[in-house]
Specification:
The structure holds 2 protein chains of 2 kinds. Chain A is built from 7 helices and 10 strands. The two termini of chain A are 24 Å apart. Chain B is of the alpha+beta class. Helices cover 55% and strands 24% of the residues of chain B. Chain B has 16 helices and 13 strands. Classes of the chains: A alpha/beta, B alpha+beta.
Chain lengths: 249, 415
């Protein structure tokens, strides 16, 4: 995959294991109220460098998704730091966190979460509209390019609802890359896909990290996917259990 | 086209049925508001035009004379000043010097005409009937300048009256009751004389009190009949801008030393009735807009509930809280704009249709069709009411949508 950049001029190219682009220190997070309150993250610290594909694995309920949302500034930790490109944004205001999400972070969720009223290309253009750095014609061109990269060049004008599950997830990947983010966070991105489509999506994300020097974090249960990453982080009961190269399958 | 508008429009179109209901509600509310205001203000306007065309914008009546009282100035002996003692005013009936007072009033820039009127009571007698009437002595040309008398002639003509010293103009209702036709003659009796006159023309103002009792004579003839060789009973004044009658009447009182009554003061009771009707119908119809607003609130609240996930996704990709709020306010704005335009068109169409409905009204004015008033202000007020309702209906769901925490929503959606 050769992912085109839309606004970055000072980056690109493989940069695996460079200075952390995304890191957290001592993250704590509780969920729920009263007696149902659960300590989901218990002091997680993690550094992820540019060009790295990091898998976060662990049993259900261990806090993988909560960690991902905290790293992606979708959720506020109760304590700890979240640094993106060196800046601690854990306690930053909503405006700064929202702008950072738009400019620097791309999300891929287990469910594609496309807007059903929009075509594939329009869904990909949504983050670009918010960023507002490209002219509408250039947005359209970039959306077409990204959809071609995920194998949907011929379906860009189809409504999201008229695409198959695999196609929709690939559109979601293209959307995550719309603003050429430095960080891509994927929460079980292949959870609802067949083996063929799952492989295609992971290939896209790995290629993005390798070719464009982006940091990619993939939350997964799937050991095959974890094995294809540069690094595997295991979680259990809100703590990091292991951190290292994934075992070869 | 802003991305928020684009998203808003797509969200709205995806709820075609609910949107159509909201749209229809707003359009009907706006249309009915315009229609009721056009009707009530139409009748009010027509009544005022009738008043201005019959009894004039201002009537100048009795002369008053303030009693002056001398007061000593404080601190200085043998010094003093005079003040008007209003409680001890003296009144002199009628206008003693109508020519001089009329000339002074004509100096007012807003005054377009002054007519000297001598009035009194008499008994109209035909061989078969008799009835009390009010005699109005006028100079025809002056009176035509301050009334719509020329337009109110329904039988006979003014040249016939102009050329006949014994000619009279008689109200339609009086003519009907006394069975008088143009050309018929009758007697007018006063306590000390009786004179014969001929009907030159019949007029109809639509105001029953006038049409059943008032007859117009030439001024000289009225002076002879009523034994009033000098002065006038009152001066009738027309204004270029009748809306300023209250202020002009006050100035005329000060300048001319005569009581001056504006049409607003004379007709206060009816004007209040019309105003109450207009406000009442406006409030009634505004409830339709309010109910439509509730419908719209439901629709937008439903969209917020159904689109919670999409809103969270938009937030995750960098849409700010105010962008989300704008998406929902845009939906309100689209319904408001479309509903208002449709409502304006429907309102204009209904107003036109109602103006063609035949209805015979006599009493306080004369009309054979529903009277409507075409005024931009009705359309603007209808829009403002709809805008206020729609804004509130859209703001609450918009605020709720903007407050959603994306992480929580996505976590729950994925669970």
């Amino acid at each position: 995959m050769n992912v085109e950049t839309n606004h970055r001029s000072d980056d690109g190219g493989p940069a695996a294991n460079a200075a952390p682009i995304l890191s957290c220190r001592g993250l704590h997070r509780h969920l729920g109220e009263g007696e149902g309150r659960v300590h989901v993250l218990r002091g997680i610290s993690l550094d992820i460098g540019a060009g790295t594909v990091c898998a976060v694995a662990g049993p259900s309920g261990c806090g993988k998704s909560t960690l991902l949302y905290a790293l992606g500034l979708l959720d506020r930790p109760d304590a700890g730091e979240v640094r993106i490109e060196g800046e601690n944004l854990a306690a930053a205001g909503d405006a700064v966190r929202t702008r950072t999400r738009n400019e620097s972070i791309g999300f891929v969720f287990q469910f594609h979460f496309l807007l059903p009223e929009f075509s594939a290309a329009e869904n990909v253009m949504l983050p670009m509209y918010r960023l507002g750095r490209l002219a509408p014609r250039d947005m359209r061109r970039r959306a077409g390019y990204l959809l071609e990269q995920v194998g949907l060049g011929a379906r860009q004008d189809r409504l999201a609802t008229r695409l198959s599950g695999g196609e929709q997830q690939r559109v979601a990947v293209a959307r995550a890359l719309a603003n050429d983010p430095s960080i891509v966070l994927a929460d079980e991105p292949t959870g609802n896909l067949d083996a063929h489509n799952a492989r295609a999506v992971v290939d896209l994300l790995v290629a993005l990290a390798r070719e464009r020097g982006r940091a990619v974090v993939i939350v997964t249960h799937n050991e095959e996917i974890a094995a294809r990453c540069d690094r595997r982080v295991s979680m259990l009961d809100g703590r990091l259990e292991a951190d290292g190269a994934p075992p070869a399958l | 086209m802003s991305p928020e508008f684009k998203i808003a429009f797509r969200f709205l179109v995806s709820k075609k049925r609910a949107m159509s209901m909201s749209l229809a509600g707003i359009a009907c509310g706006v249309a009915f508001f315009i229609l009721t205001q056009a009707q009530t203000s139409g009748f009010e306007r027509f009544y005022i035009d009738t008043i201005l065309g019959t009894t004039g914008a201002i009537q100048v009546h009795d002369r008053f004379q303030d009693t002056l009282r001398t007061m000593d100035a404080a601190g200085r002996e043998r010094s003093g000043f005079r003040i008007a003692h209003r409680e001890a005013r003296q009144y002199v009936e009628g206008v003693e010097e109508p020519a001089r007072v009329g000339a002074a009033i004509r100096e007012f820039t807003n005054v377009s005409g002054v007519s000297e009127v001598v009035s009194g009571s008499a008994r109209l007698r035909t061989p078969v009937r008799e009835r009390s009437v009010r005699v109005y002595g006028i100079r025809l040309e002056d009176h035509l300048a301050v009334t719509e008398l020329a337009r109110q002639i329904v039988r006979g003509d003014l040249p016939g009256f102009r050329g006949s010293p014994q000619g009279v103009l008689i109200g339609s209702e009086l003519a009907r009751r006394m069975q008088l036709q143009v050309g018929d003659s009758f007697e007018l009796d006063t306590p000390d004389q009786s004179r014969r006159y001929r009907v030159s023309a019949v007029y109809e103002t639509g105001v029953r009190d006038i049409d059943e009792a008032r007859i117009f004579l030439h001024l000289g003839e009225a002076r002879s009949l009523l034994r009033r060789p000098f002065g006038a009973s009152f001066l009738q004044v027309s204004l270029r801008d009748p809306g300023r009658a209250v202020q002009d009447a006050a100035r005329i009182e000060t300048v001319a030393g005569h009581f001056a009554y504006s049409w607003q003061e004379r007709e206060r009771a009816w004007i209040e009735v019309f105003r109450a009707l207009r406000v009442s119908s406006g409030l009634t119809v505004a409830t339709i807009i309010l109910i439509s607003g509730l419908g719209m609130f439901n629709m937008l609240a439903m969209i917020v509930m159904e689109k919670t996930r999409e809103i969270a996704i938009l937030r995750s990709m960098g849409y700010r809280r105010q962008d989300i709020r704008r998406i929902f306010l845009w939906q309100g704005a689209v319904v408001l704009a479309a509903g208002t335009i449709l409502g304006w068109l429907l309102g204009a169409l209904l107003t036109f249709g109602v103006s063609r409905i035949p209805i015979r009204i006599r009493g306080i004015f004369a009309t054979d069709y529903f009277v409507v008033n075409w005024a931009w202000s009705h359309y603007i007020v209808a829009f403002l009411i709809a805008a206020a309702v729609v804004f509130v209906a859209a703001w609450i769901p918009a605020r709720r949508a903007a407050r959603l925490e994306p992480g929580e929503v996505i976590r729950n959606s994925a669970a």
